[in-house]
Structures are given as structure tokens and as C-alpha cells.
Amino acid sequence: MSELKTPPSGGAKAAAATADYLDQRTGVGNAVKFFARKVFPDHWSFFLGEIALYSFVTLLVSGVFLTMFFVPSMAETHYPDDGVWATMRGVEMSEAFKSTLDLSFEVRGGLLMRQIHHWAALIFMASIVVHMMRVFFTGAFRKPREINWVVGFVLLILGLAAGFSGYSLPDDVLSGNGLRITDGVVKAIPIIGSYLSYFIFGGEFPGTDLIPRLFTVHILLVPGLILALIGLHLFLMVMHKHTQFPGSGRTNSNVVGYPALPVYAGKLLFNFFVVFGVIALMAGTMSINPVWNYGPYDPSPVSAGAQPDWYMLFLEGALRLMPGGAEFMIGDFTVPLNVIIPAMVVPGVLFTLLAAYPFIESFATGDTSEHHLLDRPRNRPFRTAFGTSLLMAFFILVLAGSNDLIATHFHLSINDITWVFRVLLFVGPWLTFVVTKRICLGLQRKDRELVLHGHETGRIVRFASGEYIEVHKPLDAHERWLRVQHEAVRPLEIEPAEDSRGVRRKGYRKDRVRQRLSQVFYEDRVEPVTPAELAAAHAAHGHAPAEVGPGHDDHAVAAITAGGGTQHGVPEGETVPDGRNR
Questions:
Q1: How high is the mean pLDDT of the chain?
Q2: For the chain, N or C: smaller number of CB within 10 Å?
Q3: Which of 78, 67, 134 is nearest to 103 (CA)?
Q4: pLDDT value for 444
């Protein structure tokens, strides 16, 4: 008996006709098929990049609302005598500051939108930094993703520009102090500093043109560049396929995870609402940037405890730590090193090292192969130690930017605090590097010990001879693979400086520099366990060959190839983690 089929509804027919129309004219069906079959790995750390994307979408939505009511003008006006905020009545201010007050107190939902926008900006920058650190420590920047790392770095710089330009728009005392510092830094540039300041501010600081210019930069120029680079960033990620953490069944040629449609699309939508909900909750319960307490900008006063948002605080800290009087004359021009070094040299060094690191590491290793499996940070001691030392320098500068608040809250001498931070800026990163590197090497030795001897069980066995030993539980294939699959990177070996005829070899100097750099990177290392070492360890413990790994001996040997450079399947008897391979 044949089943009766329900005829499609009118809506279904219209949807099918629309889809067919678009597919025939745009080929969208192929794109849908491609993304439906695209597999993405699943790990909580990948959510960090999503937070940056969702917070930027929140910035765009809230920013459109704010743009409708904000007046980007430095024209002078007065707050009305019957205004909502009593302390501001009759006070002279700019149109920008007045519109900010009106947006906060007169526009329905305006204050909530202002705070959503500000909190989203802070979270946007924080998620970019944490996401870049995840990429850095796991080696996700290696070939073929060096360009994507540079794109992410440029996004970080553009985020700083967007945050600073938006932070200055209300034209209040706090943001005005930041602009005054900016003016001082610009004027510190020898020869062209004063001319550049006049160009930026439209005359002597503060001028009358800065707020409209910042408004254009904040809502048009920087967001447009960020949108373009986000698109490029996502395109490169899809083209190169997503990196994944090492594990059994995961190789450089496959991806273990879930398809984009419908699994990942549903997760992305859910995560967006979670991020937006958290930002909205923060905006509704935690006040931020109450400009009505600061008042309109006046170049004469400087409020105590004035600080920028956290992502610009390291520059403030660098300026506070630099001793005064470090300047000299070149003809009629003063070169103020007490401004140039902290405001230009220090951030320049930090950002240059961060941007160029993938290329430096590639030059040191001479590695030209593609990498789609991530590193465990412990297996790259130098990189992990270098990254933590950069973070330590950043944290010290951030704390130094709050030295006045630390002094008042803890009743300490601000001079003593400043000197402590000056010393820490040189000692802290070095000490962090040494400690982190030793921790990574120690963790590698622990992994090696586990592979050779297994987990301690606490069970003591006595032999007939009277000998006591502790019984160890051997690692299963998944645990063992995780600890031995990484490549053993060793310092480069180069050809001699002279050939057999005594002629100096061309390119020797460059090779020598690369060799020395690779020694810095990989001289201190712990080699992964080899099959021979594992067999000897099991023989010493009295294990039968079958106990080397579940299934067959050749599988166990394959799972711990020397150097870990070749990927292998999962031994018989083991199961692959949930997910689909592509």
C-alpha cells in the first residue's frame, strides 16, 4: 500500500523557487554544499576568536544607534538651566560633550547603549589579545598561516586606534588628558613634531577640528578596515582549514570535528547570543565612563588618578617609569628621550617582536613544511618562555600606569613604587623567561617518564627474592601518542666555512647567523621517547611485548616513532574521539 504524500505548502514552494533562482544566477548552491561539508575541530580555546568577532558585531550595532544622537562638534554651547544633571546646569561645554549627556539622560536606552558599546570595546580588545596568545603559544602561526598572523596583528593595531579615537569623542576631562599626552608625544618627534601636531589638531592644541576628525576615523575609516581584514582573516582560515590540537586520529592531512551545517552554525549562533547577553548584563549592572562626573574638557586642570582604558595603559606606564631630564640638543632642536623612548621605542620593540616572530622562528628552524597540528606549549620551551616574558613586560607597564592609585589605596610611597617597577621592567621579563623555560623542560621530562614507566599506582609488590617494587600502570595508546607525537627540533647543522679547496663558502655568514639563532631556540630540549627506549623500559619492568600497546607490537612502535614526524592511525582496539574526519 503506497503512502500518501503531503503536497508542499505555498511557503515551501516559494522558498524552493527562490533558492533555485539564486543558485542558477549566483552558484550559491555550490558554496552552501562546500560549507555544509566543511569540518571544524571543537575546542574551548577556539571560542576566544569568536568572542572577538561577536563583540565587534555588538560594537557595530550599538555604534549605529549612538551615531544617530551624537554631535561631533567642538562648537561651544551651554548645558541648559533645566537640564537633567543638576551639577552641569549652565556649564560651558562643547556640542560633543552636551550630546553625550543628552544621549545618557534624555534618549531612551541611550545610557545602556553607551555602556554596551564601551564594554564591548574592552572585551573586543581583550579577546583579540588572548586569541593571539593562544595562536602564539600553540604555534598556529606557522606555515601556511604567517600572513593570517600579520592580519591578526594589524587588527590588534586597528583595535587600539578604534578604541582611542572613540574614547576621546565625548570631549570630557579624562579623555582630554589623554589627547594632551598624545599631543606631547607627537611634539617630541624631532624637527617635524610641531608641524605634525598642528596638522592633527588643526592648530594649537586642542584646536577646533579634532573631534570631527576623530569621529570620521572612528565610525568610517577604522571600522571599514577592520571589516575588510576580518573578512580576509576568515577567508584565509577557511582556505587553509582550521588547526587542531594533537591527538590520536588527528594528522596534518585531516580535521577531526563537526560539520559547519548544522552543528557548527547552531553553536556559532548560540555563542553570539551568549556573548551579547553577557555584554548587555555588564552594561546594565556596571557603570563605565561616567563623563558627567568628570566634566567638559578644559586644558588647564589635570585630574588625579586619570587613566585610559586598559589596552592603552601600558603606554601610560612606560611614560611614568621613564626618568625626566633624558634629553639633548641637535642644533636648535631638542630630542626628549624621556618621551621618545617610552612612547615610541618601547611599544615599537614589543609590537615588532610580536609581529615578526613567525618569520624569525621560521628562519631559525629552516622549516618549510606545512603545519596543521598545534604544538603543546611545553614542547616549545623557548617560544613559550618568550611569550610569557612579553606578557610580563606588558603587565608591569600596565601596573606602572596605576602607580598613583596603588600608592593612595595601599598608603605607599609613589617614588618607591615607581622605582620597584623600573627594576621589575628589566628583571621581571628575564626571570619569567628562565622560570617558564625550566617549567616547560620539567613537564617534558615528566611526559617522558610517564611514557617509559607509566602512571604511579601506589601499589607495592614483593618478589620472592624479597625485592619491593611499585607497580606502574602503562599508558594507553591515546595518552602515549599525545606525549610522543611532536617533532624533535634540533639546532641546525651547516656546512663548513671553507670548501675542500680552502675557498670561503658563499652564504656562510647567513647560515652561521641562522645556526646561532636555532641554538638559542632549541639548544635546551628533551627528546621524545624512541621505540628502542620504550622497549628497553618495558623489558626492565618485566612487561611482555604485547603490553607495549593494545593490539599489535608494530602499532605500538608506530605510535612512538623517533622524532614523531610521521603520523599514524589509532592502534587496533582503540576508538577515535567523537567527531567526523575529513
A1: 84
A2: N
A3: 67
A4: 93
